[in-house]
Amino acid sequence: MIDLPDLAQVKAALRAQRIETPSWGYANSGTRFKVFPQAGVPRSPEEKIADAATVHRFTGAAPSVALHIPWDKVEDYGALARYARGLGVAIGAINTNVFQDNDYRLGSVTNPDPVIRRKATDHLLEAISIMDLTGSRDLKLWFSDGINYPGQDDIRDRQDRLAAALRQTYDRLGEDQRILLEYKLFEPAFYVTDLPDWGTSYAHCVELGERATVCIDTGHHAQGTNIEFIVAFLLRQNKLGAFDFNSRFYADDDLMVGAADPFQLFRIMNEIVRADALDPAYGINFMLDQCHNIEAKIPAIIRSVMNVQEATAKALLVDRDALREAQQEGKVLEANAVLMDAYNTDVRPLLAELRAEDGLDPDPIAAYHRSGYQQQIEAERAEGRQAGWGA
Amino acid sequence: MIDLPDLAQVKAALRAQRIETPSWGYANSGTRFKVFPQAGVPRSPEEKIADAATVHRFTGAAPSVALHIPWDKVEDYGALARYARGLGVAIGAINTNVFQDNDYRLGSVTNPDPVIRRKATDHLLEAISIMDLTGSRDLKLWFSDGINYPGQDDIRDRQDRLAAALRQTYDRLGEDQRILLEYKLFEPAFYVTDLPDWGTSYAHCVELGERATVCIDTGHHAQGTNIEFIVAFLLRQNKLGAFDFNSRFYADDDLMVGAADPFQLFRIMNEIVRADALDPAYGINFMLDQCHNIEAKIPAIIRSVMNVQEATAKALLVDRDALREAQQEGKVLEANAVLMDAYNTDVRPLLAELRAEDGLDPDPIAAYHRSGYQQQIEAERAEGRQAGWGA
Amino acid sequence: MIDLPDLAQVKAALRAQRIETPSWGYANSGTRFKVFPQAGVPRSPEEKIADAATVHRFTGAAPSVALHIPWDKVEDYGALARYARGLGVAIGAINTNVFQDNDYRLGSVTNPDPVIRRKATDHLLEAISIMDLTGSRDLKLWFSDGINYPGQDDIRDRQDRLAAALRQTYDRLGEDQRILLEYKLFEPAFYVTDLPDWGTSYAHCVELGERATVCIDTGHHAQGTNIEFIVAFLLRQNKLGAFDFNSRFYADDDLMVGAADPFQLFRIMNEIVRADALDPAYGINFMLDQCHNIEAKIPAIIRSVMNVQEATAKALLVDRDALREAQQEGKVLEANAVLMDAYNTDVRPLLAELRAEDGLDPDPIAAYHRSGYQQQIEAERAEGRQAGWGA
Amino acid sequence: MIDLPDLAQVKAALRAQRIETPSWGYANSGTRFKVFPQAGVPRSPEEKIADAATVHRFTGAAPSVALHIPWDKVEDYGALARYARGLGVAIGAINTNVFQDNDYRLGSVTNPDPVIRRKATDHLLEAISIMDLTGSRDLKLWFSDGINYPGQDDIRDRQDRLAAALRQTYDRLGEDQRILLEYKLFEPAFYVTDLPDWGTSYAHCVELGERATVCIDTGHHAQGTNIEFIVAFLLRQNKLGAFDFNSRFYADDDLMVGAADPFQLFRIMNEIVRADALDPAYGINFMLDQCHNIEAKIPAIIRSVMNVQEATAKALLVDRDALREAQQEGKVLEANAVLMDAYNTDVRPLLAELRAEDGLDPDPIAAYHRSGYQQQIEAERAEGRQAGWGA
């Protein structure tokens, strides 16, 4: 039902799209109640990278993998990067972890104890050293810091401590490196989270400088938050650095992106396309950050990559001229209809065609299942300790 | 149970406290389903001011009244200000209204039609002229602008239009005048609100300059938002200009402040006290913005002023040294207990004593009921059109 | 991408589908801040019915119109029903209104004053008399009753009063008549709503008897509520009587159904199809209950009917055998994929074909715009008072 | 400020109050991100019971302890009950656990696999056998069952399976035993939870019979849910069996009861007192269900017991006659003021006096710290495996 005068452009844009997958998404994860183990789960950073490379092999759209330190700690990061390149993928963002050491019970960089703050900040600096070795551009910072009870600590003092740690970290960045500063409404902190919303992250980033940008995790907002508004606003302010894609019905459910609200994902990608911010050259890192607690991990990640592609294809099909005209004339229903026309289009044939043209299987999930990879890893990785959040 | 070494200081702080009441709070209001009229409701700006002066007479803490233009439009604003002063109150913030004209169906300053944007912006400028006449310092800006359907208008274009209108308005401000920029999650817009959260308001204020500050309406957030965090953060950024106090269980219910969650109000006032921001000299305008749909209006406003006073008194009673010590040592329960000790204290005797010392009745509500004012206005205002949101 | 072995069955099911439109949806509506008037809006119950008949003429799927008493009060309801039948539509549910009289400030059937309770209950009984005249089967009961402040009234006493009024009403029902008991989280009551959730409505319906059933308004839940679960559960309990369809991002936004979350609407219709409850013979009344505050009313209602049809078509296309098999085998991703396959299908061509086969224009919106009806009503209805909430 | 004509009655009611503490509350717990271990945490069911007895020793109000099977599995439950009695406490509710076995990845009693359903149901039956040995009256059932993705399993089939398991369990109950059926909005299931709200639990309990009652966990609702309404409604329906007390700002935060919203706790206890349901003879089991992730466990539980006592004392101080009179007369502010008068009263002196009269230390927290118990358990329990979720 849609006029496709520039199908070639649409395909070109889809071909240029890059989605980064997370090493921890291949490993066991769960809720506080239970981590259900899965067969074939990787036992090492290298095996996680191999899985990521497999996802890229079947989708053609996931050429980098984010690491999580210390979950992916190795002796030789240069060797790890070479190993990845050998499998056809690059090391992407380096994620820090200052929430799983006993010292961090009352916070990491915002802890009232300066010794613990020092330890946490040193970990952030160490991550930049790893970036130097892996060639990573992005340092992703998520802090679980916060307090559980009113009065437990001073809200403002904690902001001062946070700002100090961020400043030290920012100053250590190389010229081509940058900070992606994530925010989250709650969990694991249950009263105050020190970086609870985009406004807090934005304000710190503005103070830090132009190489500090906001990372939007699509599952980290209060119910009712309009995420595409935040996307549009940060794009306008030139402060949108990355996405952590996932979906949720309730809190930070970390379900597959596009699974809970595919229309929301489309609206987000629509703002990206509207701002010409899809191309990797623009600089936004489109990452997945998900927990496949009960579903098969590699197929789930392939599905997630495809979901982002489908939402993007629909956004690319929006008739921008017709939309703008209806908007300018205040035609509410007509403008909405232009957007919905694109959303209601079945773009799966287009993406299948694109894949076929690029030498990929038009159905990446089926191709993965036929490939024997799953059987192989289940056999090979039967022994040893499965990687997981605490691993 | 609390040690009160500096009771004199506590009383001095309470004596200095100023709460501004809103002219529209004395008038009829309601929901979209029904406005229930009340007897004795004012029929003119002067009668609203008389009611506000009555609240101040019984509380001693509400010496100014905010106006809403055009609800409070008069021929001679200088005369209105003198009338107010004659009754012992000052004209406070001037509130603009760009949401009740048919032209604003698709927005005011963010409307796609430049003619309507011009009209809306002119209203904002007119409000500053009124401020010049009333001697008001604060221009309060709330925009109902937004869209109801995805695609209806361009999110980013609307931000550009908003920024342009704010810039013109800011540039018109006198040296001692300032903007209070309000935000609201939703209602009356149901998909995008152009100023939906504190971050958006903050970012615009930073771009405008130091005389633009954020106004926090305590009923304008998503469920689960930690308001006292926003208070503490904006204080740190020196961008907190005002409160619109009210309370809610669900959305923007506009109930009496402190009625729905008195502990939250205490936590908010605790951040104010912690930052030494209570004194009028600091510059925060503590306003009420409420709708007394079913309860008697003047007693409800007196009760609201008292609720803010009680929360403030409790915040002033927090043992800051003990709190800081427990916080520094990471004693979670002890720090929380210090805060709760103050909250659990019954401060009503203290406030009654303070009033008595100041020549006020210790029980303002009872004194109001005994005064005959209600009977008088019900008799005098029986004729004529009651003021209301559309009046 | 979907195998359609039973396309004839799908079409038959779609042809049988009935959606009831609300008389008040054709009239002016708004928020508490402003009602924006629209040209051509009906001035009488008859004109509302004419508009509803027009929607049916272009969609073929909206053969009945719900009335709201007293907004649609007429002298002769039999004549009104005949008038409707003459235009090709039937009078559907009768909606009561016990929220717009000054007496109902503190409640209607739950008011502490027995005189007001009597008056409210009498209105409910009167509505059944109207049903007798219009041949309506359904009495829809929505109560705005509740309290705004803790302590304002006794929660349990109000339940007793509610139960008493419902009992009297139920006992007055004719054999072929029934109660649709609506619930709502909040608004206009802001602390307790006396019928706040499906559980309360369900419990009262169980006590009343089998002719009392629950009406689900899709905009009346807390954020995060899984509505399709409620649908499935009430179907299992044989207590689902009706829907009030609309959509929302925040609270009871009353936007066009399917506009805010089309995937949710699909999931709801999926439960209906799964339970074989789509056919009118099953007895569920699929009604719209929306407010077209800023968009053109008749086209908005046509669009809403089409949105329900599209969601239904997708639900009918779910491969039930494949779904069940994947579910039984615990194949999480496969089962989800079966559902998503149907959702991702573009069903607009199928519905266009169906309409063409039935002698309708395949594009009802375009056909309406070409028909001249809008121009006609704007010309004819220029004089007189537009109908609206409270009119 | 409150008239206390029946202080003796208030004290008697407070003396009769019983709060059950949970064995798992004494053990290590955490979020999915991290479990922070604490010194002195129990290593066995016996040590948990010893801690519970300690809480009772200092509060005089916590004479029973709930067990969680299999976390508290022992060889000889009769011996365990005798051990508890020897320490002055009784074994309370038996909690089942069908969420931590690998088999339960896709559900326990609602699992599509009948073999797993059988296993889960058998565990429920086993728990009743344990109750026979411990003399417990209450079987608490919480199911983590649900699905994460639309289509993953059939919502209605799962209800049928749930009903079947509940029926078998109910039929196995002894005459003096009963089911407490808990519900929860989400977590660990993220799309559908099979028992998501009070309505679902209530409907199942009605079908089961009179020995099945609803358990309200105060942290298991959507934001904005009015919990005291549910309390009042279930009391009216005679189906309120128990509370799982805790508090939260966001989701199921499991903070100390009364910490997040003390006014809500007061309103809940107010409904209990209003219905004369406080006395143990009425049959409601007032349990704590909390996770002390970062704060000291035993002091946190003592504080929680005290918080419930304080909220109860305030509820007992409500002037019921004045309240009813103001309610009947429709005096909104006056009725609210009667309730708030009680809430604003500082009841700590009253409770301190009560404790002193009963031979307890007026300050249980200080007394605990002075007692040396904490130092003793930290020394004695240094070796061995600390108990925790999953231990």
UniProtKB/TrEMBL annotation, chains A, B, C, D:
Q: Which Gene3D superfamilies match?
A: Divalent-metal-dependent TIM barrel enzymes
Pfam families in the record: RhaA (PF06134)
Which BP terms in the Gene Ontology apply to this protein? Answer: L-lyxose metabolic process; rhamnose catabolic process
Q: Which InterPro entries match?
A: L-rhamnose_isomerase, Rhamnose_iso-rel, Rhamnose_isomerase, Xyl_isomerase-like_sf
Q: Does the keyword Protease apply?
A: no
Q: What's the domain of life for this entry? A: Bacteria
Keywords, in A-Z order: Cytoplasm, Isomerase, Manganese, Metal-binding, Rhamnose metabolism
Q: Name one GO molecular function term.
A: L-rhamnose isomerase activity
Q: Which PANTHER family match?
A: L-RHAMNOSE ISOMERASE
Instruction: State the name under which the record lists this protein.
Output: L-rhamnose isomerase
Q: State the species of origin.
A: Kutzneria albida DSM 43870
